[in-house]
Amino acid sequence: RHPAPTGSFMLQQSMAGMEESFVILPKLLQSVHASMYHTNTTTQIQTEQAIMQIVSKQSQVEQPVCQDCVSRILQELEHQYKDAIQQRDQYLQSLADLEAREFDLTEDAVFAQELEQLELEEAELMTELDGLAAEQAELQSDMEAVRLQTEAVEEDEYKYWSEFNKHKLEYHQFVDDRDALINRIEQVQTKLQELQRCDIFHECFPIQLAGPQSPFGTICGFRLGTTSLIKVPWHEINAAWGQAALLLYMLAKQCSFEFRDYWIVPKGSYSYMVRKSDSYQCELHTQGNRFSLVANRRYDKGMQFFLANLREMCTWWGSKNLSLIHI
User: What's the rounded Cα separation, in Å, for the pair 150 and 223?
Assistant: First the structure.
């Protein structure tokens, strides 16, 4: 072994290298100045810069170097040197420990037996690993099946709640419609009861008998008659006869009663009677012309036919014991 170089020796070598680099510089400059004595100043400066770059490459230090830079470089080199010495000591210590250790050599038979045992254990572990891998694959398959089943259950649950909310809305709508219908039925029943208690013929054909205030009976407000003292217009009397004819016609139709001898043809103020045997018409209206004997006689016949129908229906009515409430 060669003795390890000391720190001072390495530092001296580094300084020697630095000195050599500084020694080369003047020689090169002298040779360059000698060969380029007659060049101009600009060319001289460019040449010096080129020489500095060449020197920097050769010495691996940027040239020219000032004193502070040299000091810093020396400190870095010294630090690197100390690190290298410390690393070398560690390697030497490790080498000494290895040389001092005693190794027990295993016999070939024992080593082969241990190797065989380890191979068996390795085979068992590989078999167990294969089983675990198969179990893992089975578990992953089960997990995938469970995941798919979970997604299906979640989808069914979503559909269920959607249908539930839909049916709930429909149920509330049905309840609202039912309540509205019940209220409507109650209102209609109340109205029906009111109408059932109401006499429709009395409402449509109000009749007022003759009394102290009025010597005439009225139907729907129309006076049915006249006197020498109270002159009632014939158009009012004709309207009263039209309402009376319509009332008797509606009563017969409501009771499904058919008159035997005469038909009633209600036409307002121009109503008339018709005899069934020969279709003879007799008016229930007149203009009050006392000189028209034919018209006055038909008017009288019409009142007789009307009274005959009224008497016939009253007789039938009495035989059935009916009243307007039964109609």
Answer: 91
With beta carbons less than 8 A apart as the criterion, state whether 258 and 276 touch.
no
At residue 274, φ and ψ (nearest 5 deg) are -130, 130
Q: How far apart are CA 113 and CA 290, in angstroms?
A: 160
The backbone torsions φ and ψ at residue 296, rounded to the nearest 5 degrees and listed phi first, read -65, -35
Query: If we measure between CA atoms, which residue out of 266, 303, 261 comes closest to residue 282?
Result: 303
* Burial class of 112 by CB neighbour count within 10 A (0 to 12, 13 to 18, 19+): exposed
CB contact burial 216-239 (16+ within 10 A = b; e otherwise) = bbbbbebbbebeeeeeeeeebbbb
Q: Which residues of the chain have pLDDT under 70?
A: 1-40, 55-65, 103-106, 289-295, 321-327
Provide the H-helix boundaries in the chain: 7-35, 41-59, 67-100, 108-197, 200-204, 234-254, 293-320
Q: What angle do helix axes 41-59 and 7-35 make, rounded to 10 degrees?
A: 160
Count of Cβ atoms closer than 10 Å to residue 273 Cβ? 25
pLDDT of residue 65: 64
Burial label for 240, CB within 10 Å (0-12, 13-18, 19+), is buried
**Alpha-carbon Rg of the chain, whole angstroms?**
71
Residue-level pLDDT at 141: 93
Q: Which residue shows structure tokens 């009376």?
A: 244
